[in-house]
Amino acid sequence: MKLQGKTILITGGASGIGLEAARQFLAHGANVMITGRNQAKLDEAKKLYPAVTAIKSDISDAGDAKKLLEQVKQLGGIDILYNNAGVLTDPLNLGRADDRHFEDAAYEININYLAVIQLNNLFIDMLKSGKESAVINTTSILAFVPSILEATYAASKAALHFYTVSLREHLKALNSNVKVFELIPPLVATDMTANMDGKRITTEDLVKAFIRGLQKDDFTIRIGDTKLASALNRLAPKLTFGLVNPRKTYKTIALQKINQA
To answer: How big, in percent rounded to 5, are the helix, strand and coil portions of the chain?
Structure first.
């Protein structure tokens, strides 16, 4: 996949992985648009990287998503749609006898999964019109090895993984020029994972490996621990599950639940 001269739209592009991806894509000669819900973060990203085009949009809202499409059309369109935006709610809400867990689960499914389908459907004709274009969906190591704490997050990423495989094969059968990539990151050092235990990869190292995968047309881009976890899960699923879900972590969470009750 050639990046120089391509125009890329990054959802959730004002911070974390998305912002680092914007920086590195610019360095590879791409034109970059970012979108997100927080205007202050978008303004800050624009200050850091003036070449970026920043568009405020809530991709989970159907009306906003359609407006985003029209704005992108007016700006000349895109070659690559990078579905990077994702959310993770409070794991302490799992199993509570109130509406909070259900509301959080619906929120995660809507942004992590349904919003991706919505955007892909809106932008697919634009992408099909180019000579070489792509959709990039970000899943997770938890799409393959579930997390007890992040149950719905893991489920949303598992759903996105199977959707991504299906979309790739569907477009391939139609002889489409749209390539479909799946980025599978390990635990990354971002604000979202600040309170989690475990080894983290930096956003800089993640995106470097990610871009190498894109340039080689590696449609399933496993980075860091996801390579080992994928292989180990096939051979020893119980062991892999235990490594992802250490008992010590759950004891800590259980104590927090008791203290908050």
So the answer is: 55, 15, 30
Q: CA torsion angle for 154, 247, 233, 188 (degrees, to 10)?
A: 50
Do residues 182 and 161 make contact, with C-beta atoms less than 8 angstroms apart? yes
| Domains identified in the chain and CATH numbers | 7-228 (3.40.50.720)
The rounded distance, in Å, linking the Cα atoms of 19 and 14 is 5
Mean pLDDT value across residues 208-219: 97
Q: Which residues does 230 contact at the CB level (< 8 Å), separation at least 6?
A: 144, 184, 222
Q: Is the pLDDT of residue 124 over 80?
A: yes
Tens-place pLDDT, residues 35-81: 999 999 999 999 999 999 999 999 999 999 999 999 999 999 999 99
Residue 93 phi, psi dihedral angles, 5° rounding: -80, -10
CA dist 77 and 199 (Å) reads: 38
Query: Rounded to an integer, what is the distance from CA 146 to the centroid of its chain?
Result: 17
Residue 113 among the catalytic residues: no
Burial class (CB in 10 A: 0-12, 13-18, 19+), 61: middle
**β-pair type (80-83, 53-56):** unpaired
3-state class (DSSP) for residue 227: helix
Higher pLDDT pick, 230 / 118 = 118
pTM, entire model: 0.88
Q: Which of 82, 113, 153, 163 is catalytic?
A: 153
The answer to whether the beta carbons of residues 160 and 142 sit under 8 Å apart is no
Q: Output Rg (C-alpha) for the chain, integer angstroms.
A: 18
